[in-house]
């Protein structure tokens, strides 16, 4: 049976990767592992995600209707491992050094950091139900998380595990969140209103839409 591509990424090397897998957190709240969720929080919203490691040796794929993610060895061209334990995995992003990657789950209300070598979860950040798109700073110390249920974006310190700031003023920010090349501006898509919001990362203030 033919499968439609759910996500693609084009890298500088010219390689095209295609996948065919079928309560907001408060500022300065300490991260802890949440109680297991038995049902989806926003399962009617479906999306997929694909992330490639900086060295282009690993591909990690998710589809929110599945409770697992798949890790592929791109050098061997084969599935390396399926990681279970998710409910509605939303977005995947690699750390700049490629040693780990982050997976958001809107039903669990978490972002999990997974070691790229062992593929074990090394840290769970509680970010609130509705956690969706993610963006990571170049130094890997700041993680931005969209929360489509709370209409917020959380700025998380990945070293301390603290939510440094919760920015309000969005309209269902889902998967789309990107940092500018210089890291000074964060761009966030709003599902409602069809707008892109710009945030000054030095002040954590919205500067335009």
UniProtKB/TrEMBL annotation:
Keywords: Signal. The keyword Cell wall biogenesis/degradation does not apply. It holds the Pfam family Lactonase. InterPro entries: Host-pathogen_enzymatic-act (IPR051200), Lactonase_7-beta_prop (IPR019405), Quino_amine_DH_bsu (IPR011044), WD40/YVTN_repeat-like_dom_sf (IPR015943). Residues 1-27 form the signal peptide. This is Gluconolactonase. It comes from Enterobacter asburiae.
């Amino acid at each position: 049976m033919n499968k439609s591509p759910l996500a693609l990424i084009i890298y500088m090397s010219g390689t095209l990767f295609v996948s065919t897998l079928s309560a907001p957190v408060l500022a300065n709240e300490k991260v802890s592992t949440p109680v297991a969720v038995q049902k989806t929080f926003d399962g009617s919203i479906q999306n997929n995600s694909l992330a490639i490691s900086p060295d282009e040796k690993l591909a990690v794929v998710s589809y929110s209707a599945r409770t697992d993610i798949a890790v592929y060895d791109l050098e061997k061209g084969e599935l390396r491992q399926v990681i279970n334990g998710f409910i509605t995995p939303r977005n995947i992003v690699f750390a700049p050094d490629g040693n780990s990657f982050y997976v958001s789950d809107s039903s669990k209300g978490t972002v999990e950091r997974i070691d790229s070598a062992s593929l074990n979860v090394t840290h769970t950040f509680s970010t609130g139900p509705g956690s969706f798109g993610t963006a990571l700073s170049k130094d890997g110390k700041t993680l931005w998380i969209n929360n489509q249920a709370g209409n917020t974006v959380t700025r998380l310190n990945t070293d301390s595990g603290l939510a440094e700031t919760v920015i309000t003023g969005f309209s269902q920010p889902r998967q789309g969140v990107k940092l500018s090349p210089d890291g000074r501006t964060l761009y966030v898509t709003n599902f409602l209103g069809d707008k892109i919001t710009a945030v000054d990362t030095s002040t954590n203030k919205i500067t335009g839409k």
